[in-house]
C-alpha cells in the first residue's frame, strides 16, 4: 500500500489497482464506535487473554461482529511460525475458541 496525498493505493493479489479514500465513510465509523461501546473488554485485556492460551507473538487484534455478537479476534504467530486465531468474548474476556488461521486470498476479479 502506498499513501499518495489523501488516497491510499494498494495492489491486489491479481494485480488490479484499487484505492480507498483517506477518510472512512461515516457509517463505517458509526458501526465501529457502536461495537467499541458494546465491548467491556479492552484490546489490551483481549491480547492478554489470548497470549495466556497461545504462546507466541501477537500480530493483530480486531474487534468484530460475528453471528450478532461482538468479539475480539487476536492473531498470534507461534514459535513454529503457525498463525493461530483466538476468539475472545468482548463481554467476559474468556477465550471461546482457538484455531489455526487459513491464509486469506484477497478477492480480485
Question: Could you please describe the fold and organization of this structure?
Answer:
This protein has 109 residues and is an alpha+beta fold. The protein has a domain at 39-100: Roll (Nuclear Transport Factor 2, Chain: A). The protein has two helices and seven strands. The protein has helices at residues 26-38, 43-53, and strands at residues 2-4, 7-11, 17-21, 57-66, 69-77, 83-89, 95-100. The chain has a four-stranded antiparallel beta sheet with strand order 4-5-6-7. A hairpin with a 5-residue loop joins strand 2 and strand 3 (17-21). The longest helix has 13 residues, at 26-38. The protein is globular. The two termini are 19 Å apart. Residues 1-19 have low confidence and may be disordered.
Number of helices: 2
* Strands, total number: 7
Indicate the mean pLDDT. 80
Question: What is the strand arrangement across the widest sheet?
Answer: 4-5-6-7
Strand content: 35-45%
The CATH topology of the domain at 39-100 comes to Nuclear Transport Factor 2, Chain: A
CATH architecture of the domain at 39-100: Roll
Shape: globular
Low-confidence stretches: 1-19
* Biggest sheet overview: 4 strands, antiparallel
Distance between the termini: 19 Å
Helicity level, as a percent range?
Answer: 10-25%
Category from helices, strands and their pairing: alpha+beta
Output the CATH class name of the domain at 39-100.
Answer: Alpha Beta
Rg over alpha carbons: 16 Å
Amino acid at each position: 500500500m502506498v499513501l499518495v496525498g489523501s488516497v491510499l493505493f494498494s495492489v491486489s493479489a491479481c494485480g488490479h489497482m484499487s484505492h480507498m479514500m483517506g477518510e472512512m465513510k461515516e457509517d463505517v465509523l458509526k458501526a465501529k464506535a457502536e461495537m467499541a461501546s458494546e465491548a467491556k473488554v479492552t484490546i489490551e485485556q483481549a491480547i492478554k487473554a489470548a497470549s495466556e492460551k497461545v504462546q507466541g507473538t501477537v500480530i493483530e487484534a480486531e474487534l468484530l461482529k460475528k453471528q450478532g455478537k461482538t468479539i475480539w479476534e487476536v492473531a498470534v504467530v507461534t514459535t513454529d511460525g503457525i498463525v493461530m486465531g483466538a476468539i475472545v468474548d468482548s463481554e467476559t474476556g474468556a477465550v471461546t475458541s482457538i484455531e489455526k488461521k487459513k491464509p486469506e486470498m484477497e478477492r480480485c476479479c
